[in-house]
Amino acid sequence: MKADRDLIIIGGGPAGLSAAQYGARGNLSVLVIEEMATGGQALLIDDLENYPGFPEPIKGFDISQKMEQQAANFGAEITYASVSSVKKEGDIFIVKTDREELKALSVIIATGAQHRNLEIPGEKEFTGRGVSYCATCDGPFFKDQKMLVVGGGDAACDEAMYLSNLTDKVIMIHRRDRFRAQKALAERVLKNPHIEVRFNHEIKEITGSQKVEKVRLYKNNEDKEYEEDMAAVFVFIGSIPQVSMVSGVEGVKFDESGSIITDQRMETGIKGLYAAGDVRSTPFRQVVVAAGEGAIAAHSASQYIDELRGQAYK
Ligand code: NAP
């Protein structure tokens, strides 16, 4: 069996595109398989203000385009398909997509994570009609109206800050008595006069006729429920790693959140198979971390391929 490519990268977010750039620049033939649009979750970032080298905030969309261009400049190819499985036969990885079967010497999984749902009545029904998982995409529809943000992490705080530019009526609820988010960000939210933070609060139901009109909230430290008028509900309660293509594959291990465990070279329990970015069990999910992990994974893959070819520098 012969490989179609040296390296296949599944996922075209910051981790995948950085891996593609490093792999292609290292003279590997590289194919990125992306399901939707390159950029991944970074596309949703309104102002990315902590990526080194950009003292002025850059749009998530813009940096994604630049990363794609840079990878393409070095010769990486991108195709659009959904990957259903990855398995290794001998020294060849077989990557099955909804369109074809591709073979590679090494594979990097950089599929990222997808938003978690609240799983409460009204959430599904009103998604796209007031319930949203992206403030940049949908916030402007609710300008000057009352919006609810659910969550206590970095994403919820970032997005609440964004929404506070559109209305002075952002209500933010978190189920605990303090934020999980990084301190500086949490403090910015708490000081923002357009954001009213309510700790120890949960959302139980979203109601309305054609669109969101009301929410039922629960104050968990007082065991009290109440209803409130609301135009929109923005949900940022974490994310779920996208690992279905390797779930059940012997040798690939997962942590308690379902993220892929690797060693410091980003290698999974299978030689030649790597994971990088938000899909990986990692302590700090940031665009810069994903890009760094992509670079390490590509470097490791390149060394592995050299070994396979008997060209390793020892
Ligand atoms: P996260 O850090 O996992 O936070 C999720 C928040 O949602 C937690 O506060 C959690 O509450 C809450 N939550 C989870 N399930 C819930 C439920 N069913 N009902 C109500 N609340 C629920 O997720 P994230 O904010 O999406 O961030 C993901 C990763 O990306 C993190 O590593 C983060 O640092 C990173 N990130 C960074 C930035 C930035 O640096 N600007 C921006 C966005 C994301 P508990 O606290 O009670 O568990």
Radius of gyration: 21 Å
Number of helices: 6
Tertiary shape: elongated
Domain count, please report it: 2
Bound ligand species: NADP nicotinamide-adenine-dinucleotide phosphate
CATH architecture of the largest domain: 3-Layer(bba) Sandwich
Distance between the termini: 27 Å
Sheet having the most strands: 7 strands, mixed
Overall mean confidence score, pLDDT:
96
What is the percentage of strand-forming residues? 25-35%
Number of strands: 17
CATH superfamily of the largest domain: FAD/NAD(P)-binding domain
Percent in helix: 10-25%
The computed structural class is alpha/beta
Order of helices and strands: EHEHEEEEEEHEHEHEEEEEEEH
Uncertain ranges: none
CATH topology of the largest domain: FAD/NAD(P)-binding domain
CATH classification, class level of the largest domain: Alpha Beta
